[in-house]
Design brief:
With 151 residues, the chain is of the alpha+beta class. The protein contains three helices and six strands. Helix 1 runs antiparallel to helix 2. The N and C termini lie far apart (41 Å).
């Protein structure tokens, strides 16, 4: 296992302990379950990104009611995602929103160097769907934006 993966696993365990402590302090099973669901969503979204399964990753994208629409994303076929690593997570007091900062490593297929961008995401929990979503879109680094009026 690479050092980066070991460090990532440690961060996930630390995050789980911290979030578990918060949930225990709140004393609600519902909030504890939401925190567990967030951790799972972050892991599966990251895996989908790394494997290039953009349709799976896009299933985590849903605008929150009242949010500004974002232009449609058509995944680029000239880049390969090399890493997707959550750096930190900030949870709202009520446990229904989370701000996530992740590093996205990608390599344009016509280049020999990996580039990195910071992907700042706002996740929200849907009470209706009982799951977490990203309010926004897929990262700009993997998107071709369509001209206005084309979808």
């Amino acid at each position: 296992m690479s050092e980066a993966r070991v460090a990532s696993a440690r961060r996930v365990r630390w995050l789980a302990l911290v979030l578990g402590g918060i949930a225990a302090g709140c004393g609600t099973l519902g909030q504890e379950q939401r925190l567990t669901d967030l951790e799972i969503a972050l892991r599966t979204y990251g895996a989908a990104m790394r494997w290039g399964l953009y349709d799976n990753a896009a299933s985590y994208v849903r605008l929150r009611p009242g949010s500004e629409p974002v232009p449609p994303c058509v995944p680029r076929d000239d880049v390969r995602i090399t890493t997707y690593q959550v750096r930190d997570t900030g949870l709202s007091d009520d446990g229904y929103e989370a701000n996530v900062r992740a590093t996205l490593g990608y390599m344009p297929l016509d280049a020999s160097a990996v580039r990195e961008v910071l992907d700042v995401q706002h996740w929200w929990y849907s009470k209706d769907a009982h799951r977490w979503f990203i309010d926004g879109g897929l990262p700009e680094a993997i998107c071709k934006r369509l001209p206005e009026g084309r979808e």
